[in-house]
Amino acid sequence: MATPSGKTSTPTPLASKRAAPRDPSSEVPSKRKSSAPPLPAGPFVEGSIVRIAMENFLTYDICEVCPGPHLNMIIGANGTGKSSIVCAICLGLAGKPAFMGRADKVGFFVKRGCSKGMIEIELFRTSGNLVITREIDVAKNQSSWFINKKSTTQKVVEEQVAALNIQVSNLCQFLPQDKVGEFAKLSKIELLEATEKSIGPPEMHRYHCELKNFREKEKQLETSCKEKTEYLEKMVQRNERYKQDVERFYERKRHLDLIEMLEAKRPWVEYENVRQEYEEVKLARDRVKDEVRKLKEGQIPMTRRIEDMETQRHNLEARIKAKIEELQQALTVKQNEEHDRQRRISNTRKMIEDLQNELKTTENCVNLQPQIDAITNDLRRVQDKKELCEGEIIDKHKERETLEKEKKSVNDQIVQFDNLMNQKEDKLRQRYRDTYDAVLWLRNNRDKFKQGVYEPIMLTINMKDNKNAKYIENHIPSNDLRAFVFESQEDMEVFLKEVRDNKKLRVNTVIAPKSSYADRAPSRSLNELKQYGFFSYLRELFDAPAPVMSYLCCQYHIHEVPVGTERTRERIERVIQETRLKQMYTAEEKYVVKTSFYSNKVISSNTSLKVAQFLTVTVDLEQRRHLEEHLKEVNRKLRAVESGLIALRERNKHLEYEDNELRQKKKELLERKTKKRQLEQKISSKLGSLKLMEQDTCNLEEEERKANTRIKEINVQKAKLVTELTNLIKTCTSLHIQKVDLILQNTTVISEKNKLESDYMAASSQLRSTEQHFIELDESRQRLLQKCKELMKRARQVCNLTAEQNIPQEYQTAFQDLPNTLDEIDALLTEERSRASCFTGLNPTVVDEYTKREEEIVQLTEELKIKKVELDKYRENISQVKERWLNPLKELVEKINEKFSSFFSSMQCAGEVDLHTENEEDYDKYGIRIRVKFRSSTLLHELTPHHQSGGERSVSTMLYLMALQELNRCPFRVVDEINQGMDPINERRVFEMVVNTACKENTSQYFFITPKLLQNLPYSEKMTVLFVYNGPHMLEPNKWNLKAFQRRRRRITFTQPSQ
C-alpha cells in the first residue's frame, strides 16, 4: 500500500466491531471527548464537513472522523466501514435512507443489538460552525434532531442544509457505492437538472423550471387561440349564410304574432256576446218565475183540501186490506200445521209396525255372559302387550332423537371445518385465480393419475397454531406455496398438458423426492437450542401429507431451521457464534448466516418478517377425521334404531288389529243381549208419541168457519157503513135540493160562481203555459251559462291565464288596436294567415342557432382577445427568462466541456460535453450530452449504460465529476469506490487528475472512498488520508494514543539508516 507524504493526516482511530463495555441501550451522550488530532491547516469552504461522529452506527461503536478541507481519501478493506461513513454523511444531513440503496428504514442503520444510535456532523460556517445531531430510535424507527445541541425538527435541518447548497440526493454531488452504476443511466435531461442544481447559480434551475412551465402554458394558449380563431371564423361564415333566412323568419313571426293576438281576442269577443245574451235570458226567466209563484199561491187552499180527502180515502182502504190479509195468513198457517201433524202420525205408525215385525223375528236371547267374560280377559291381555310395545316405541323414539341431535352436532362441527377450508380456498381464488381453477379441475379428474397428486401446498398445510404462520410464509416462497405436489413425473406431465397447455392456466408444480425426508432428524437436538430461546423447528409447527412434508424438508430444510423468541434476538450474536446455524427465526426477524469464501468470516443478515396472509386459517384434519368416523358410527346406530322401530310398529299394528277384532266380537254379543229390550222400549215410546199427536188435532173446518165468520162480520160492518153513507147521501141530497132552491133564488150568485170557475180554469191553463215558458227560459239560461264558462276557459287558455289572474295590461293594450267584432276579426285573421303562408321553408332551429352563435361569437371574440394578451405576456416572460437562463447555461456547459475534454486529452482519449436539444423552444427537452471515445479507431459515442464497458463508464463519470469540481458551488463532493472496474492505466490517470483537481486552492471538499490503491501514486500535501481499520482484535477507543504512535513511527524511520 502507498505511504502518504509527510503532511498526510493520520486518521482518527475507528472502533472495533466488538460491543463497547457498557449498556448498548444507554442514551447517546450529548458531549463526547474527541481523540482526533488538531484539524489540518487549510481554508474550508462554506458548508464543508469539519467533523463526523458516530455511535452505535452500522459497524461502529464509537467513532469520530475529522476530514481535511481538500481531498479526503478514505482507504480500507471491504467490510471495514468505509461506506458507513458515507451513510453517516447522507443520513446526518437529512438524506433519505432509500437513497443509499441499503435499507428503507433508518432503524436498520443502528448497530445490531443496540436500541439507539447517533450521528453528529459539524459543518464549517464563517459565522460559526453548524453542528447537526441525529439520534435514531430503533424501536420507533424515528429520529430526534438537534442543531448546536438544541432540539429541532427535520424540516429546519433540511432548510439549514439547503442554505449551504448541500444536496445529498444529487448524484453530481453525492455518489454512494450503490448509485455509481445509476449515474451512467441518467438521461440527458436528468443530468442537466443534476448539474444545474450542483454547480449552477441558485436561480439557474429555478429559471429552467419557470421556462418549462411558461412554455407548457404558451403551448396551451397557442393551441387554445388557434382553436378559438378557427371556430370563430366557422361560426361567422355560418351566420352569414343564414342571415337572410333569419330576417324572413322574423317577418313571418310578426304576422304570426298578430294572428296569435287576433286568436287571443276572438274568444273574449265571442264570450262577451254570449254573456250579454245570457243576461237578457236571465232577466226574462226571473219575470216568468214571479208570475208562476203568484199563480201557485192562488191555488194553494183548494189543492190542500183535495189532498186531505185523498189521504183519508187511501188510509181507510189500506186498513181494510191489511185486516183481510192478516186473517187469510193465519188460516194458511193452521192448514200447514194440520198437514204436518198428519204426516208425522203416518210415519210414527209405520215405524211402530216395523219395530213390532222386528220384535217378532228376534230370537230368544241365550246366556251370552260367559262368552263376553272370556273376550274381556283376552282384550285385557292384548292391551297389556300393546302398552308394553308402545313403551318400547317411545324409548326408541327418544334414542333416535338423541342420536339425531348428536349427528347434527357432529355435522355442524364438520361444516365449521369445511368453512375454514373454504376460507383458504377463497384466499387462493382471490390471489391466484389460475391455481384455484386448476384445483377445481384436479378434484374432478383425479382418476387420470396413477399416483398421489396433492393440491397446492398452502391448502394441504395445516398450522398447529396460526400465530406461527408468518414463519412458514416467510420461509417458503409464494411460488411453491401455490405449487401442486406430484409423486410421479408422468402424472405431472399429464397435469401440465391438460391445465397449462389446453386450459392456458399459469400453475406451478413440483415433484416429491423418491426417498422420504419427512422423518429425518435435525442435526442438532432442540433441547440443545432451548437455552437460546428456540422452542421448535419449522417442521413441527404444521401438519402436511408425507410427500409434501418430504419435499419441504428436502428443498427448504424445514427440519433444520429453528424458531426462537424475543430472547433469541437479544442474544443473537452469541447464537450466531456458538450454534453455527445457517438460518433461524426470532419473534419478528429472519437471520441468514453465511461464511465468506475469501476471509472465512461469518456474515449475517436479518430481515423483518412479513405478515402472514394464507396460512392463518387452521384446520385440525385429525379431529375432522375423528368426527367423520364418529358420524359414521352415529349413522349406523340410527339405522339400527330405525329397523327396531319398524319391527315394533309392525308388532303394535298386529296387536291393534287383534284388539279391534276382540272389541268387535264383544260389541256384537252385547248388542244381541240388549236388542229385544231396546225394541220394546222404542215401540212404547212411539205409541206415546202417536197418542199425543192424535190428541193435538186441529179442526180446519172449524178454523175456516171462524175466519169466514169474522170476514162476514167485517163485511157487515162495511155494509152498515155503506148504509150510513147512503143515509148521509140521502141527507146530502135533501140538503142539496134545498141548496138548489137557494141557488134558483139567487141566480146572480150562481152566474158569478160559474164565472169564477171559468176564471179558475183559465188561470190554471195560464199557470201551466207560464210554467212551461219558465222551464224553457231556465234551460236556455243554463245552456248560455255553460257556454259562457267554456268560452271564458278557452279565452284564458289562449292567453295562458289561471282562474285567479286578470287580463295583463299588455293584452289589453294590444286588444285596443284590434277590431271589436267577430266578422272583422275573422276577416283580418284570414288576411294575416294568407300572408304568413307565403313564408315557407323556414326552420325555427336555424334562428335559435343563429342567435346562439351571435352570442357565442361575441363571447369568443372577447375570450380570444384576453387569450392573445395573455399569450403575448407569456412570450415576453419566456424571452426574458430564457435570456437569463440559456446564456449562463451555455457558458457553464462550455466550461465543463473545456475541463472534460482536457481531462480526456491527457489520457490520449477524446470526450465532449454539449448542451443538446431537438427544438430550441422545448425547454423540457434540453439536456447535457456526454460523448466519449477511448480508442482512436472509433468515433465519439454518447455515454450510455450499454455501449461502454463498466470501467469506461466509471472513468467518464469520474472525469465529469472532476470537471464540475472547479466550477462547483457545493461545499463538498462524495464519490464511493468509483475506481472499481478500471484498468490500472486509467485508474492511475484518474487518480492523478483527482489529486491535481481537488487539491487546488479555493476548491470544494472532496471525499474519495476506495478499498485499494495502485503503488507509487502521486500524493499532494493538501490531501488527507484516512485509513479504516476494523476487526475483532482492535483496541478499545479509549486506549488509542495517536501521538505515541507517531513518535514510535519517527523512531523507526530515524533508526533505519543507521542499520
Describe the fold and architecture.
Helix content is 60%, strand content 11%. The two termini are 24 Å apart. Strand 22 (972-976), helix 23 (984-998) and strand 23 form a beta-alpha-beta unit. The longest helix has 160 residues, at 202-361. With 1059 residues, it is of the alpha+beta class. The strands form 7 sheets. The chain has a 6-stranded antiparallel β-sheet with strand order 2-1-4-5-6-7. Helix 6 (369-431) crosses helix 7 (433-444). It has 24 helices and 24 strands. Among the domains are: 41-170 and 977-1054, P-loop containing nucleotide triphosphate hydrolases (Rossmann fold), CATH 3.40.50.300; 373-431 and 620-678; 451-619, no CATH class. Residues 1-40 are annotated as: Disordered. It is found in: Chromosome; Nucleus. Residues 49-1010 form the RecF/RecN/SMC N-terminal domain.
